[in-house]
Design goal:
The structure holds two protein chains of two kinds. Chain A is of the alpha/beta class. Chain A is built from eight helices and eleven strands. Chain A has a single domain, classed as P-loop containing nucleotide triphosphate hydrolases (Rossmann fold, 3-Layer(aba) Sandwich), CATH 3.40.50. Chain A has a seven-stranded mixed sheet with strand order 6-7-8-3-9-10-11. Chain A has a four-stranded antiparallel sheet with strand order 2-1-4-5, with helices on one face. In chain A, strand 7 (160-164), helix 6 and strand 8 form a beta-alpha-beta unit. In chain A, helix 4 packs across helix 5 (142-154). Residues 225-238 of chain A have low confidence and may be disordered. Chain B is α+β, with helices and mostly antiparallel strands. Chain B folds into four domains: 1-58 and 233-412, no CATH class; 81-212, no CATH class; 423-501 and 697-839, no CATH class; 530-672, no CATH class. In chain B, helix 2 (20-52) packs antiparallel against helix 10 (347-373). The chains are: A alpha/beta, B alpha+beta. Chain B: InterPro entries: ABC3_permease_C (IPR003838), MacB_PCD (IPR025857), Membrane_comp_ABC_pdt (IPR038766). Chain B: It is found in: Cell membrane.
Chain lengths: 238, 839
């Protein structure tokens, strides 16, 4: 579903250019769930932004559902995101001036899917928020906002879901509810899940964990066995 | 889908108050422009109507020959109203006495504008009449009752006809305004003129045709008439040609309205620019979200362009309603004082207002929108990422171009537009330099322990670019308000100075040398103060440097004198004095106070009025010959004077050294002021001096004063409107900048900073910005005022030092207070709410 080959990211600062991501290669299979973990500043979010096509790689190749992201321009990537990708963010990123249901409808409308309102109602029902459909984000609690965000992410039945610290802004009780909801929907829709998290419990719920450190992918851990990254990463990795 | 989404966003944002500021700015611009221009258009209409009364029509044709009936028929066929008058000077006889009269024969329809006023008894209170003399009737001036010793019903003879005295004539609209035009007026019917047989060859008769109707129709009529006119015989006059004090005051007021409206447009534009920038920044997140969710650039562009369209349309609609209401309120409030007709509806202001709203909304939101479209989707992960596009050059280019375009379209006056725009550009340039300077100073001041002042300086320094934009918009707003305010003060002061309280409203002429002391005493005993006595003697102007002057008879101080560009009166009123009169200024040569006669027949110095000198091509050193009585007086031009004709005092074209006139016995002219409520005393005041002629200019002065008062009042209202608009703009600016401060306040609050520290740091920041903006505005104001007053308003420019102190103080106060109010609102929220607002 996702394949990266030696992707790197270099940014230009006032003190010269800085490589914030060393060459990274790995693959994610369809339906698999992956957690990218690591300390702050280790490059987790950068990696996520590249995988999701929100940013461009400086070198290397990325294929998202066989589409070569590295050759596509912003417009083409947007199209791809609209068709195949869902997002969940730590700060929810709901459009403040749209109601819960309108936020959920948004991806379906952008993708031109039929009957977006009906779809949105159904999925809001599924996340248990049908009674809050016409509330604005600032009238909802953090947990509720994230449920709206999840509903929005799943409305288009995306092939891949990217989640950036989905429980980072929530308390323990809400975190658990959100996690459960996320994995439940993930299973239901058969989505490939890539999430960035600090939360070990959440990470261990994923099939595999990619550990980042100072811009390098240092190990890949599987639920059943921990194996050294170098052994499985194949050529191109250090 | 796009329209749907855009409409939904628009609806929710409007409901949640997100659009308030930008909507408000558009409403403000449309309402201000509409109300100002509608009001000024209506007021101008009223003033033109008013001043048209001075020529009794919208246009007038004066001729030395009878006016062709064909010309009048043509005018009538075009839908223009016409009327006729024939005037001449002639002798009128009572049973015992006779007098020279200014005889006016008026036809049907006269006057087309203004009113004839009559009284029940000589010197009685005038009242308007709709009638005009019937054939066989004569209406005569109060003075004629004395001079001819007649009563109402008596018979008066003019030429070969006899007339019955039917009314006391007080006033006709176009009687002229001349101290020397001493002949009392008599009014008869047009058809009676021929019977008098006084209009034969050799008599000086003026034929006038009056025209009233739509300006455009009259203009096209004039286009038709013009080729048939002979410059030697005909003269076309329109209200706008009015060179009198009133005409100039009105022209100046019109320019002021134009200026005020232009400034209102600029203010509104600034408000929209500020609001659009804020709007754009608030939508960075939604755009990033849309992009992340796969929206194409085209979709985002369409959603936001539609949004701007919705806002613009709504703003324009509400703005027009508000503008009409404001204008109506002002007109209603002024109804008692200003004669503004509400019946007339003008479409041009509506068109201009809509155009202004559209240009402002479109051009000023262009740059913020371009920035908005460039927000990268990555912002959803990296919250600090803003728009990737940034070009101050483009921003200033588009905004500046839009403002200039608006000014030019609106004023159709390149000069005013260029002056205001130039001052603005200079101001911006200077402000950028000052901001850089401030940042350097702030770097020093802002270090050290963290008090409220240090925090304020630190903020100013950190947000250098934002602050420079803010400083520029504050300064421009304050400058524009200053220009409107100071311009109004100067203009009204100059108007008032033309006709101060106690301006002489009566003139006395034909006072003999012997009567002088007795008259002075008698008036003093009655508590009336007499101004200076000026000797007057009639002389014929014979030659310039031995070249004979062939001119026709006109007299100075007669507004009609200017018509005869060919020359000056053969008969001139000469005066002599070695004291330069008040409001006279020597512009060439030197005043003859210290001249001493040399030799047997010296060349006496004469001072010539500038206009006459130009017209007759008289230069310093020329020899002018006058024939006074049977004597020849030869003079040499030693000075040329500039005379302020707008003052109500006797003025003279020629002032000769007293030594030249010793031999002649002159009469004297003087003037005095008498309050309106003492008008009845005139007869008793004048009784001992039957041979002295009284000339009453009270009505004329009141008329001029009324118009000036009305115009001043209107100017004041416009000032208030602009001030309100300006204050709202300032408020919008502070509000917009409050958003940017929110985050910082939240952090400071979270870190436990005391409310007072935060509040004072914000207030201090605004105080600093307000002071600097005020100071810069005072400087720019001086520059624009100098340019405007000297180049556009035909006024004497002066420096306004007081505003150099007032502007920074008021700037600091207003901006500081607004800052405090905005800050208070934020500080009223608890930290949690503040943090939530940031998300």
């Amino acid at each position: 579903m996702i394949e990266t080959k030696n992707i790197t990211k270099i940014v230009t600062t006032s003190e010269g250019s800085l490589q914030i991501l060393q060459p990274i290669s790995f693959q994610v299979k369809p339906g698999e769930s992956i957690a990218i973990v690591g300390a702050s500043g280790s490059g987790k979010s950068t990696l996520l932004s590249l995988l999701a096509g929100l940013d461009e790689v400086s070198a290397g190749e990325i294929f998202l559902d066989d589409a070569p992201l590295h050759t596509m321009d912003e417009e083409q990537r947007a199209q791809l995101r609209g068709a195949k990708v869902g997002f969940i963010f730590q700060s929810f990123m709901l459009v403040q001036s749209l109601t819960a249901i309108e936020n959920v409808m948004l991806p379906a409308e952008i993708a031109g899917l039929p009957d977006p309102k009906k779809r949105a109602q159904d999925i809001l029902e599924q996340v248990g928020l049908s009674h809050r459909a016409h509330h604005y984000p600032n009238q909802l609690s953090g947990g509720e906002q994230q449920r709206v965000a999840i509903a929005r992410a799943f409305i288009g039945q995306p092939k891949i879901l990217f989640a950036d610290e989905p429980t980072g802004n929530l308390d323990a009780a809400n975190s658990e509810k959100i996690e459960d909801l996320l994995f439940e929907l993930n299973r239901e829709v058969g989505t490939t899940l890539v999430l960035v998290t600090h939360d070990n419990t959440l990470a261990t719920k994923c099939d595999r964990q990619l550990r980042m450190q100072a811009g390098e992918l240092i190990e890949i851990t599987s639920q059943s066995n921990v194996k050294p990254f170098l052994a499985s990463a194949g050529e191109g990795s250090r | 889908m796009v329209t749907n989404l855009a409409w939904r966003l628009f609806k929710h944002e409007a409901r949640r108050g997100e659009l308030t500021i930008i909507l408000f700015a558009i409403i403000l611009s449309v309402a201000a422009v509409l109300s100002l221009s509608l009001f000024s258009e209506r007021l101008q209409g009223a003033l033109v109507e008013r001043s048209s009364q001075f020529i009794a029509a919208d246009s007038q044709l004066r001729a030395a020959d009878p006016i062709s009936t064909e010309w009048l028929t043509e005018a009538n066929s075009m839908g223009i109203e016409t009327a006729e008058q024939i005037s001449t000077r002639s002798m009128a006889f009572g049973e015992q006495q006779m007098s020279l009269v200014d005889l006016r024969a008026v036809g049907q329809g006269y006057p087309l504008k203004g009113d004839i006023k009559v009284a029940n008894e000589p010197f009685g209170t005038p009242s308007i009449t709709q009638q005009r003399p019937s054939p066989g009737e004569i209406w005569i001036d109060s003075r004629l009752f004395q001079l001819l010793d007649v009563k109402l019903g008596s018979t008066v003879y003019v030429g070969d006809s006899e007339f019955t005295v039917a009314r006391v004539l007080s006033e006709i609209p176009d009687q002229g305004f001349s101290v020397f035009n001493t002949d009392p007026m008599a009014l008869i019917a047009l058809e009676d003129m021929e019977k008098t047989n006084i209009t034969g060859p050799g008599s000086r008769v003026v034929y006038k045709a009056y025209f009233a109707g739509d300006t455009s129709v009259i203009d096209s009529y004039y286009d038709w008439l013009r080729p048939q006119l002979d410059d030697e015989l005909h003269r076309w006059q329109t209200v706008g040609d009015d060179e009198s004090a009133i005409g100039r005051s009105i022209a100046r007021a019109e320019r002021y309205f134009l200026l005020a409206s232009l400034l209102a447009i600029v203010l509104a534009a600034v408000a929209i620019a500020v609001a659009a920038q804020r709007y754009s920044q608030r939508h960075f997140d939604p755009v990033a979200i849309f992009k992340t969710l796969g929206a194409s650039k085209q979709l985002i562009r369409r959603v936001y362009i539609l949004q701007v369209m919705f806002i613009t349309v709504l703003g324009i609609v509400i703005g027009i309603i508000a503008g009409v209401i404001i204008q109506q309120l002002v007109v209603t409030a002024l109804a008692g004082q200003v004669d503004v007709s509400l019946d007339v509806w003008h479409w041009r202001p509506v068109f201009i207002a809509v155009l202004t709203g559209t240009i402002c909304a479109v051009l000023f939101s262009l740059y913020p929108l371009l920035r908005l479209f460039s927000v990268p989707p990555l912002r959803v992960l990296r919250r600090d990422m803003g728009a990737s596009m940034s070009s101050k050059g483009l921003q200033f280019g588009v905004s500046g171009g839009a403002i200039f375009l608006l000014m030019w379209v609106y004023s159709r006056n390149l000069e005013i537009s260029a002056i205001l725009f130039g001052s603005g550009v200079l101001l911006v340039g200077a402000l950028v330099l000052v901001t850089l300077g401030l940042i350097a100073v702030g770097r020093k001041l802002g270090s050290g322990s963290m008090g409220s002042w240090q925090l304020a300086w630190a903020r100013i320094r950190r947000r250098a670019m934002d602050n420079s934009v803010q400083l520029i918009s504050f300064s421009i707003t304050i400058m524009l308000l200053l220009v409107v305010l100071v311009m109004r003060n100067d203009m009204v002061a100059q108007w008032r100075a033309q006709l101060p309280e106690n301006t002489p409203n009566y003139f006395l002429i034909n006072i003999t040398e012997q009567q002088k002391p007795a008259l002075e005493q008698h008036f003093a005993d009655n508590g009336v103060n007499i101004e200076s006595f000026y000797p007057v003697i009639r002389g014929r102007f014979v030659a310039v440097n031995d070249e004979r002057v062939n001119t026709e008879v006109t007299k100075e101080d007669d507004p009609e004198a200017t018509e005869g560009r060919r020359g000056l009166g053969r008969e001139a009123n000469l005066t002599w004095s070695d004291v330069l009169q008040h409001e006279n200024k020597v512009v060439q040569g030197s005043w003859h106070a210290n001249w001493t006669p040399e030799g047997e027949s010296p060349l006496y110095p004469v001072s010539v009025e500038q206009g006459v000198a130009e017209r007759l091509k008289i230069a310093l050193g020329d020899t002018l010959t006058f024939n006074v009585g049977s004597e020849i007086v030869v003079t040499k031009v030693t000075s040329i004077r500039e005379v302020n004709w707008q003052t109500m005092q006797p003025n003279f074209f020629f002032v000769i050294h007293p030594a030249a006139m010793q031999e002649f016995s002159a009469t004297y002219i003087t003037s005095f002021h008498l309050d309106g409520d003492r008008k009845a005393e005139i007869t008793s005041l004048m009784q001992p001096f039957a041979s002295v002629t009284l000339f009453d200019v009270d009505a004329r002065i009141n008329q001029v004063r009324e118009i000036i008062d009305q115009v001043s009042l209107a100017v004041e209202f416009i000032l208030v409107l602009v001030l309100v608009a300006g204050s709202l703009v300032l408020f919008a600016q502070v509000q917009a900048s409050m958003d940017e401060r929110q985050q910082e306040l939240a952090i400071l609050r979270t870190l436990g900073a005391k409310g007072t520290l935060i509040r004072f740091s914000v207030i201090n920041e605004f105080l600093i910005i307000g002071t600097v903006a005020g100071l810069m505005a005072a400087m720019a104001n001086e520059f624009s005022l100098f340019m405007l007053q000297s180049r556009v308003f035909d006024m004497e420019a002066s420096i306004h030092w007081e505003y150099w102190a007032i502007a920074p103080a008021v700037g600091a106060l207003v901006v500081g207070v607004l800052g405090a109010v905005g800050c208070y609102r934020l500080l009223a929220l608890n930290t949690g709410q503040l943090l939530r607002k940031m998300v």
